[in-house]
From TrEMBL:
Family note: Belongs to the thioredoxin family. DsbA subfamily.
Name of the protein described by the UniProt record: Thiol:disulfide interchange protein
Organism in which the protein naturally occurs: Roseateles oligotrophus
Domain Thioredoxin: 21-163
Signal peptide extent: 1-28
InterPro entries: DSBA-like_thioredoxin_dom, DsbA/DsbL, TAT_signal, Thiol_disulfide_DsbA, Thioredoxin-like_sf, Thioredoxin_domain
Regions crossing the membrane: none
Main location: periplasm
Keywords: Disulfide bond, Periplasm, Redox-active center, Signal
Amino acid sequence: MKLQRRSFNASLVALAAAGVPGSGHAQAAGQASPVEGKQFVRLAQPLASANADGKIEIFEFFLYTCPHCMAFDPALSAWGKTLPPDVQLRRIHVGVGAMHKLHQRLFYALESMGRLGDIHEQVFSAVQVEHLDLSSDKAIIAWAVSKGLDGAKFGAAFNSFGAQTRLGQATKLAEAYRADSVPALGVAGRFLTSPSKAGGVPQVLAVADYLIKLARTKG
């Protein structure tokens, strides 16, 4: 599926934020298993894993400008810390607009510098809480410096060929998963789910747990 400009517009990022940061996400005893075609979809063509260790890959497709992505992030981070060794969670910043591409480069620069762990949430806050102007290369680099990053090193990573390459890879991956809204979770190259499909944040994490087990059994 070719991503359309409207795919990631705020008006179409329709997700259930009401269930954010809930208590547990474990499936309740006796609760029916997630239903294919309702809580998740199966890709018509499974994707080859790029993980050299053979781990089950979970991709979160998100935007820094998406309020539901920001609300989902704490629960996703907590869930990610509980994943078993054979599962890997990766965030993928997507988007097609000029602002999205700047934020993608910011994300991939932080990732390449090993600074996502301590600065990722601060980007959400800068964009959506502080409403800072991060709409140009200069503004983003200045903001990074204000967070203690070396300006020259960040600027090199931000403008690197690697960051540009990751933009294209992110778009192709989102297309392959048919992820046309955010946040969404791509699981094991075979399944796609989201808070809107699953019915909320605790529910989507329970669905993801189920899909991880399904992936192990090749179900």
